[in-house]
Specification:
- The chain is mainly alpha-helical and 408 residues long.
- The chain is built from eleven helices and six strands.
- The strands form three sheets. It has a two-stranded antiparallel ribbon with strand order 1-2. Strands 3-4 form a two-stranded antiparallel ribbon.
- A hairpin with a 5-residue loop joins strand 3 and strand 4 (126-127).
- Helix 9 (226-236) crosses helix 11.
- It is globular.
Length: 408
Amino acid sequence: MSPYDTRCSMNHACAPLRRAVAIGAVAALLAACGGGGEGGTALSTAALSAVAALGEKIFSDPTLSASGQMSCATCHDPAHGHSSATPDQAVPAGGAGLARPGFRKAPSLRYLNLTPAFFFDKDGTPTGGLTRDGRVDTLQDQAQAPFLAAHEMANGTAAGVVAKLRLADYADEFERVFGAAIFDDVDAAFARAALALQAYQLEDADFHAFDSKYDSFLAGHAALTSRELQGLALFNNPAKGNCAACHPSGRGADGSPPLFTDFTYDSLGVPRNPAIAANADAAYFDMGLCGPFRTDLASRTDLCGAVKVPTLRNVAVTAPYFHNGRFKTHQEAVGFYVRRDTTPEEWYPLAADGSVRKFDDLPPPYQRNVNTTEVPYGRKPGQAPALTADEVDLVTEFLGTLTDGFRP
């Protein structure tokens, strides 16, 4: 088996993880692969393999798109946590003329190598998988979709991608790595290009550096400011921010660093974003696990609206926020969490009768799926929110410590 035929940090054994042990098991895999030390991973000083080095070139090559101007790095900018570099643009635009709007905010690619394959735990909780709806399980599979999507690189077919690979500056290198006849088999060549992208993401430590200020703090090499410590306390406090309920902040039992996600899914009732062109159609809804892009769970109406809980690592540099890019700052995002139910008119439009059209980005039958029970939700209009305005600022200051590349 190739070391890149992976589902979770080079180990197929993670596929059947149960949610109760998912975080600990993934942390163990992280430690086994060298993560969680005092300055990054064991791969951080290693040269890339020939496959990964090829993947690095593919990742940054705009000639592989129909426009000739879009590469993987266009929507996954290394300077922005391998996420969108355009906080004022809710979703990227692609296609042959770079004018075809997308549907979801481009997610960060950081730390995806540690995401378990999609599964339902013993309690029926959906967990793991890549993309916002968990519909693919490997980085190789994930890498193929943007090449073909009409609103992204827009090649349409694998043959279109391979034709461009034949003309790339590194075509000879591609043949040396995968065989002189590789381009004669379109499907194999396309799969190998995606394999190279997977290898690049697995090997290049920038995708899983674990070198934020918070990591240095946990290692005893840096101190958080008073306000950052207060923000951390609020983040962890189950009666205040309660953020750690889905974004655990503590080390694993083996000492491995936190990933700030529990890999599950949640329906938060994020307001509809009019900046997404598809939303001009009142009948269009992005319902996460139950569609429209994932189709195998379409009948699971209890999951409609649930979207993957992302890592909060690098959150300060990966605006805009949520799957639909609704908020441009993480202060707004944290404010929405704590004031969604206390001042709903701040976030949602008003109906003709003056009532608030709460949870307006889900069809009415599925609005019952929105999380209204966990702190900080469930408060009534007019009640005090779980966090004050200053406490929101404290939490966002703490979140700023999760950005990779900290240097004391």
